[in-house]
Specification:
With 123 residues, the protein is mainly beta. The protein has no helices and eleven strands. The strands form two sheets. Strands 2, 4, 5, 6, 9, 10 and 11 form a seven-stranded mixed beta sheet that branches. Strands 1-3-8-7 form a four-stranded antiparallel beta sheet, with no helix packed on it. The radius of gyration is 13 Å and the shape is globular.
């Protein structure tokens, strides 16, 4: 069983930055595909960014050029650096892990989820 704990959320003004972290338990973190998703108020959960075990990276079009995903396998942690934040980025942000090491936009392909961290961007 893998436990994921997100941190780094908060309230920020439009144009500001935040760095989210997701710490994972377990000894096989380096083999997992890791994804960041978000769920805006009243909407479905959506893919934000993902990094595979081979460090292949993909982003949603809405965050490309503003957000950067990275991982530190030595610390069992995945990061999401968020710059030029917009009010529409307001959401609960979740990290997720896939045992097959791949990344996908589909929530059903991920095996483990964190509890989420709130990001609020004021205009």
């Amino acid at each position: 069983q893998v436990q994921l704990v997100e941190s780094g959320g908060g309230l920020v003004q439009a144009g500001g930055s935040l760095r989210l972290s997701c710490a994972a338990s377990g000894r096989t973190f380096s083999m997992y595909g890791m994804g960041w998703f978000r769920q805006p108020p009243g909407k479905e959960r959506e893919f934000v960014a993902g990094i595979s075990w081979t460090r292949f990276i993909t982003y949603s079009d809405s965050v490309k050029g503003r957000f950067t995903i990275s991982r530190d396998n030595g610390k069992n942690t995945v990061f999401l650096e968020m710059n030029s934040l917009k009010p529409e980025d307001t959401a609960v942000y979740y990290c997720a892990a896939s045992r097959d090491g791949r990344v996908t936009t589909q929530t059903s392909r991920y095996d483990y989820w964190g509890q989420g961290t709130q990001v609020t961007v004021s205009s």
